[in-house]
Design a protein that fits this description.
Elements (H helix, E strand, L loop, with lengths): L11 E6 L5 H6 L8 E5 L9 H18 L9 E5 L6 H8 L8 E4 L7 H14 L5 E6 L10 H12 L10 E2 L1 H7 L14 H14 L18 H15 L4 E3 L5 H7 L2 E2 H11 L9 E3 L6 E3 H18 L1 E2 L1
Parallel strand pairs: 1-2, 1-7, 2-3, 3-4, 4-5, 5-6, 8-11
Antiparallel strand pairs: 9-10
Helix pairs in contact: 3-4, 5-7, 10-11
Length: 320
């Protein structure tokens, strides 16, 4: 399922409360730039009593964005709706009507065995109502994945359920702050989530189970101002990339450019990836020095890396 640029193109996913009345104008005026995705959240950012009001605000915002595209040109990010439960998906799909055409899909929180089947079936039915594909992005953050005795079996059972949605699973998301919360932990700007042993082990298990078949996105970085926040974010993304994460959840527009720059592909990696994929499998030699003459390239060993590198280059660009 990782064989298409679409799965690599979510990038920096900007979270916004669904009841923020200025979000449509911000999108139309390109206030946040032209390279990010947007999550309109109906879950943790909305008080329980205000959900119906937030749903109406969300529908109005998406409708305004959709209507504005008929009269002017502006960057349209991939727009996702983070729901509270599976029961919201079909009513929202119907309520959005024609404006559903600017929605990419749904983000589902605390994805676990008690709700996974309901979410997947709701997405399948929503796609029957939609003229364009709607995608699912489950978030792995539920406390059920903390238990070492059952974690591996749980992750594989959830993967089997997700397989029913097939190519409509766009990304796997991870709830870094929720996992840290379970242990009463919080990282500072000069610390990475990959240094927090109990949490990093959970993230590693998720990559091990899902990373060969899905794009798995990096956890949120909660700092957007103050001393060292950019350096800390870049440091954590280096760890994300090394561990197999692609893209990142962001909670402030100032983080978008840092994420985009961090995922640009180096010229050396780009050149080597093209060289590796340019080899003929029938060649008598499937190993060679790199284009820069600094490392070894091997067709059978580095093929998957090379394909992923070219998708990232197309999504984020190449830096010299």
């Amino acid at each position: 399922m990782k064989n298409d640029l679409l799965y690599y193109s979510v990038g920096a996913l900007l979270y916004c409360p669904a009841n923020k009345k200025t979000i449509a104008d911000s999108i139309i005026s390109e206030r946040f730039g032209t390279k990010f995705s947007l999550a309109l959240c109906l879950e943790d950012t909305i008080g329980d009593r205000f959900v119906p009001e937030a749903e109406h605000a969300l529908i109005d915002s998406i409708d305004k964005i959709c209507r504005s595209r008929q009269t002017r040109s502006f960057y349209l990010p991939k727009i996702f709706i983070r729901v509270r439960d599976a029961g919201q998906i079909l009513p929202l799909t119907r309520a959005l009507g024609k404006s559903l055409e600017v929605v990419t899909g749904y983000i589902v929180p605390k994805f676990t065995l008690s709700n996974a089947e309901s979410y997947v079936q709701a997405l399948i039915r929503a796609n029957e109502l939609s003229p364009a594909p709607l995608y699912l992005m489950p978030i792995y953050e539920d406390p059920s994945i903390l238990d070492l005795r059952t974690r591996q079996e749980l992750l594989y059972r959830l993967k089997d359920i997700l397989a029913k949605a097939g190519k409509h699973v766009l990304n796997i998301r991870v709830g870094g702050n929720d996992l840290c919360h379970a242990f009463g932990l919080r990282r500072h700007p000069d610390e990475s989530i990959h240094e927090i042993g109990p949490v990093s082990h959970i993230l590693s298990d998720i990559i091990t189970v899902y990373g060969m078949d899905y794009v798995v996105s990096g956890p949120v970085w909660e700092y957007y101002s103050g001393p060292g926040w950019e350096k800390g974010l870049r440091q954590e993304i280096r760890g994300d990339k090394l561990c197999g994460f692609i893209g990142k959840t962001v909670i402030h527009p100032s983080q978008i450019s840092v994420v985009n720059e961090a995922y640009r592909v180096s010229r050396k990696d780009f050149d080597d990836a093209r060289a590796i994929l340019g080899w003929s499998p029938d060649s008598d030699a499937l190993v060679s020095g790199s284009v820069s003459g600094e490392r070894m390239n091997e067709y059978k060993t580095h093929g998957n890396w090379a394909r992923q590198t070219l998708y990232l280059a197309e999504a984020f660009g190449v830096k010299d």
